[in-house]
Automatic annotation (TrEMBL):
Pfam families in UniProt: Choline_transpo (PF04515)
Location in the cell: Cell membrane; Membrane
Function: Choline transporter.
UniProt membrane topology term: Multi-pass membrane protein
Descriptive protein name: Choline transporter-like protein
Principal location listed in the UniProt entry: membrane
Native organism: Biomphalaria glabrata
Protein family according to the UniProt entry: Belongs to the CTL (choline transporter-like) family.
Membrane-spanning ranges: 36-57, 216-240, 247-270, 298-319, 340-362, 414-434, 517-538, 544-562
GO cellular component terms, semicolon-separated: plasma membrane
GO molecular function list: transmembrane transporter activity
Keywords: Membrane, Transmembrane, Transmembrane helix
Domain of life (superkingdom): Eukaryota
Length: 633
C-alpha cells in the first residue's frame, strides 16, 4: 500500500488552470493513504479525550448534580458503599430510594444538617409523636441515619440533628430539595428573612445542576420532539424528490410562516413569564434566580428569532428571481437518489453517530463537573466522512454511462474512506473553523484593494491577499469530491476543485449559492416548526423551572436532524456542479464525445448559468450607472 505523507498543497504555487482539467474522468484505482500526519494527530487527540473521559468517570458522580449530596458526602438515591469518605461519620450509606434532600432547620439552610429522604412532608408536623407517625406510615425517616424509629418520640431536634427542629412545615420538591410549600405561613418569616435565606441558598446552587435537572425531567419529551423533527425532515426530503417543481415555493412559504409562528410563540412565552414575575415582585415574593434567567433567556431567544425571521424575508425578496432556476437541478439530484435509494440511509447513520457522540459528551461533561476537572471537546468528523461518501457516489453515477455497471458504490466508497482517506476527512473537518476567517479576509482584501491608500494596498498584498491567495481560497467542500476520485490529499484536491470551477466559462457559484440557500431555509423550517411545538409543550409543564434550555436543545437538535437528512441533496448538488464543469471540459455533446450527464440536465444547466450571468451583469450595470440629474425647471 502506498503511503502519501503530503499535507501541503494549499500553499502551492498557482498553476495553469488547463492542467486541472480531466481530473474526474479517470477515477483512481491504485490509491494510497492521504494526510497521514493529520490522521495521526487526530488519533492522538481522540486517545487524549478517551483518557480524560475514563479519568472523569472514575472520579466523578453526575447524580450529585441531579439529586445533590447530604452533609456526609453521600449522593442521594445512590449506593455510596464504595465511595465512603475516610474519617466522615455516616458516609458510604446505601441511599437508594431516597432522592430528596431534607433540612433539619429550613430557617437556616446554610448551616443546617441535610439528609436524604424518600418523601417530603406532605402535612405540617408539630410534635414528636406526629414525626414518629409520619415516618412510620410513609417510611420517610426524617432523623439522622443511625437513629432508630423507636426513639423519635424522645429525641431532641436541633440545627445539627439528630432530629429536625419542630414544627416541620408542609413541603414539596424543588430541584429535589424539600422546601416549604408556603413560606408566608412560617412564623416570623419576614423578621427572620426565612424566604430570602431559602431563595438565596437555592440561587447559590450550581447552574448546571438546574439545567441538568430539567433535561433529566424532560428527556422523554425531548426524545419525542426529536422524532417529530425526523418526521418533518423525511417529509421535506420526499417532497423535494417527487414535487420539486411545485414544492420549492411551498417550502419557502412554510419556512417563513414557521419562523414567524416560532417567533410569536417565543414572544408569547417571554411576556407570560414576565407578567408572572412582575406580579410576584409586586407581592414582595422573593424571586428564584432560575426564573429570572429563564425570562432573560426567552427575551434573548425572542430578539434573535425575530431578527433571523426578518433576515430570511429580506433574503427571499432579494433572491426570488434566482430561485426558480434551480428546480431542475434539484430534480437531477432526486434522480441520483432514485438510482441509489439506500443513500437515504446515510442521514440515519449520521444522526445515530451524532446522537452517540452527544450522549458521550454530556455524560463525560457531567462526570467532569463533579470531579473538579474541566475539558473541552469538539465534534468528530462523522458528518464529513459521510459527505465524502455521497460526493463519490454522485460522481460515479454522473460519469458512468452504463448505470448497470455501478455494482455496489455505497459499500465500495465506504471501504475506500475507511482504508485510505481517514486523514483527509479529519483534515476537512476543520472547514468549519476557517469559514469565518475566510469570509472576513475576503471582505478585508476586497476593501483594501479598492482603497487609494498605498499603505492599505501594501497591507492587502502583504498579509490578507497572501492568506487568501495561498490557502483559504482553496479550502472548500468540493475537495471531498476530488479526493474521492483522484485519491490525492485534501489540500491538493481542494486546489484542483477550485480551478475546475473558476476555469469553466459558465460561472455557477451564484446558482450553487441559491441551491444552498433553499436547503438552509428548509432546515430553518424544520427547526422553527419543531421549536414552536416545544415551546407550547414545555410551557404547560409546571415541574420545569428553566425550560429555556430544553427549548434551546430542541432547536439545535431539530436543525442538526434536518441537516443530516437534507445534506444528501446538498452534497449531491455540490458534486453535480463539479461534474457539470468537468463534463463540459471533456466533451462537446457530439456523437463522438457525448455528454455523460442527461441531455435535459446539460441544457438546463447551460441556460441557467447564462441566465445567472446575465442577471449579475445587469445588476452590476445598474449599480454602476450614475443617477440622472433632476430636470431643471
Amino acid at each position: 500500500m502506498k503511503l502519501s505523507l503530503t499535507m501541503t498543497g494549499c500553499c502551492y504555487p498557482i498553476k495553469d488552470a488547463k492542467d486541472q482539467k480531466g481530473l474526474l474522468s479517470k477515477p483512481r484505482r491504485n490509491r494510497g493513504c492521504t494526510d497521514i500526519l493529520v490522521f495521526l494527530v487526530f488519533v492522538f487527540f481522540i486517545c487524549g479525550l478517551i483518557f480524560l473521559g475514563a479519568f472523569s468517570i472514575s472520579k466523578g458522580d453526575p447524580f450529585r448534580l441531579v439529586y445533590g449530596t447530604d452533609s456526609f458526602g453521600n449522593t442521594c438515591d445512590e449506593d455510596n458503599s464504595k465511595r465512603a469518605i475516610t474519617g466522615v461519620s455516616y458516609s458510604g450509606r446505601n441511599l437508594k430510594g431516597r432522592p430528596y434532600l431534607f433540612f433539619m432547620n429550613i430557617k437556616e439552610p446554610d448551616s443546617s444538617m441535610r439528609i436524604c429522604v424518600n418523601k417530603c412532608p406532605e402535612n405540617d408536623i408539630l410534635t414528636p409523636r406526629e414525626l414518629y407517625d409520619f415516618s412510620q406510615q410513609t417510611g420517610s425517616l426524617l432523623c439522622r441515619y443511625d437513629l432508630d424509629l423507636s426513639v423519635y418520640v424522645t429525641a431532641n431536634g436541633s440545627l445539627q440533628g439528630p432530629c429536625p427542629v419542630l414544627p416541620i412545615h408542609k413541603s414539596e420538591s424543588l430541584l429535589n430539595w424539600c422546601i416549604p410549600r408556603d413560606m408566608v405561613e412560617i412564623d416570623g418569616w419576614q423578621e427572620n428573612n426565612i424566604a430570602n435565606n431559602v431563595i438565596a441558598y437555592i440561587n447559590k446552587s450550581n447552574v448546571f445542576q438546574k439545567v441538568l435537572r430539567d433535561l433529566y425531567a424532560s428527556w422523554t419529551v425531548l426524545t419525542a420532539l426529536c422524532f417529530l423533527a425526523v418526521a418533518f425532515s423525511v417529509l421535506m426530503v420526499l417532497l423535494i424528490r417527487f414535487l420539486a417543481s411545485v414544492i420549492i415555493w411551498l417550502i419557502l412559504t412554510l419556512a417563513v410562516l414557521a419562523s414567524m409562528a416560532g417567533s410569536a410563540f417565543i414572544w408569547w412565552t417571554f411576556i407570560s413569564n414576565k407578567n408572572k414575575l412582575d406580579m410576584e415582585e409586586t407581592l414582595r415574593v422573593p424571586l428564584l434566580e432560575v426564573d429570572i434567567n429563564s425570562e432573560n433567556s426567552f427575551l434573548l431567544f425572542s430578539v434573535v428569532s425575530t431578527v433571523l425571521t426578518i433576515i430570511l424575508l429580506l433574503i427571499l425578496v432579494a433572491m426570488r428571481k434566482r430561485i426558480s432556476h434551480v428546480v431542475l437541478l434539484l430534480k437531477e439530484a432526486g434522480s441520483c437518489v432514485s438510482e441509489l435509494p439506500l443513500l437515504l440511509l446515510q442521514p440515519l447513520w449520521t444522526l445515530l453517530l451524532l446522537i452517540m457522540f452527544f450522549v458521550y459528551w454530556v455524560t463525560v461533561l457531567a462526570y467532569l463537573s463533579t470531579s473538579d476537572q474541566t475539558n473541552q471537546m469538539v465534534p468528530p468528523e462523522v458528518s464529513d466522512g459521510l459527505m465524502f461518501c455521497e460526493h463519490h457516489i454522485a460522481v460515479l453515477i454522473h460519469f458512468i454511462r452504463d448505470k448497470s455497471q455501478l455494482g455496489f458504490p455505497i459499500l465500495g466508497t465506504i471501504g475506500r474512506l475507511i482504508v485510505f482517506h481517514q486523514g483527509s476527512v479529519a483534515f476537512g473537518s476543520l472547514l468549519t473553523l476557517v469559514k469565518l476567517p475566510k469570509m472576513m479576509l475576503l471582505f478585508i482584501t476586497k476593501k483594501l484593494k479598492s482603497c487609494d491608500n498605498c499603505c492599505a494596498q501594501g497591507c492587502a498584498q502583504g498579509c490578507c491577499c497572501w492568506c487568501v491567495e495561498k490557502c483559504l481560497r482553496y479550502i472548500n467542500t468540493y475537495a471531498y469530491c476530488v479526493v474521492a476520485i483522484s485519491g490525492k490529499n485534501f489540500c491538493t484536491s481542494a486546489k484542483k476543485s477550485y480551478y475546475i470551477l473558476v476555469s469553466n466559462t459558465f460561472k455557477l457559484s451564484a446558482m450553487n449559492s441559491v441551491c444552498h440557500l433553499v436547503m438552509l431555509i428548509t432546515k430553518v423550517a424544520v427547526m422553527a416548526a419543531t421549536t414552536a411545538v416545544s415551546v407550547i409543550w414545555f410551557k404547560s409543564q409546571e415541574d420545569l423551572h428553566f425550560y429555556a434550555i430544553p427549548v434551546l436543545v430542541v432547536a439545535v437538535f431539530s436543525y442538526y436532524i434536518a441537516h443530516c437528512f437534507l445534506s444528501v441533496y446538498q452534497v449531491i448538488l455540490d458534486a453535480l456542479m463539479l461534474c457539470y464543469c468537468e463534463d463540459r471540459d471533456m466533451n462537446d455533446g457530439s456523437l463522438e464525445r457525448p455528454f455523460c450527464g442527461s441531455k435535459g440536465f446539460m441544457i438546463h444547466m447551460a441556460e441557467c448559468s447564462q441566465a445567472f450571468n446575465d442577471l449579475v451583469r445587469s445588476q452590476q450595470r445598474s449599480s454602476s450607472e450614475p443617477e440622472s440629474e433632476p430636470a431643471q425647471v
